Amino acid sequence: MKKLEWDNYEDLAEIVSLSFANAYDLLVGNTTFDELSEQDEFYLPKDWEDPEVLLRYYEEEEDYEKCNEIIKGKQNE
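-> structure tokens emitted (77 positions)
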């Protein structure tokens, strides 16, 4: 995997996407912190533990399958 740089404008969208994907995977149980820490580096968005933050992001991305999983998880709390 290519090393992403915060100061490279072209990498920012990919960093954001990866950070929300990591947060989603943690939320739905697809990964753990231990598994993420085995990578060279990983990103998480601010307030990543808040399902509403993830829901808003995936609504904006129009990824409704992930939205459904987030909503199902919120209902099971």
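The CA atoms of residues 6 and 12 lie 6 Å apart.
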